[in-house]
């Protein structure tokens, strides 16, 4: 039914558990997986006139976020390999995470977005997480929202 599934991750324990569930779902469909980590755009300090020497450069920040993206997506890629599923990992930069998820899903011709009901901002929210809610309201691509019954250990 689904041929290409976008699975999102933000590196949190909740998101990692959700991504593993997404791989299991993709395995049932024998679908290709695109795993996506969205990093925030580089922000210049607005509170000073001169950038402090300890503040990372834009290049250093991008390199660190690309490394973080690789680390956050690694377990999903490995899970796909265990299921013999084609998989590609991607790190994108954006001010608005939800809009970037929708944009990537459309550009990469995904026919399903698989994401958690909550991510980093997590369990303090009563309903859906803000990113999930925004993705649902901005895309025409089907979205499967995975909800964990309890918060995973952060080990």
TrEMBL record:
CDD domains: USP-like. InterPro entries: Rossmann-like_a/b/a_fold (IPR014729), Universal_stress_UspA (IPR006015), UspA (IPR006016). Keywords: Cytoplasm. Residues 1-145 form the UspA domain. It comes from the Bacteria. It is found in: Cytoplasm. Its main location: cytoplasm. It holds the Pfam family Usp. Belongs to the universal stress protein A family. This is Universal stress protein. It comes from Duganella qianjiadongensis.
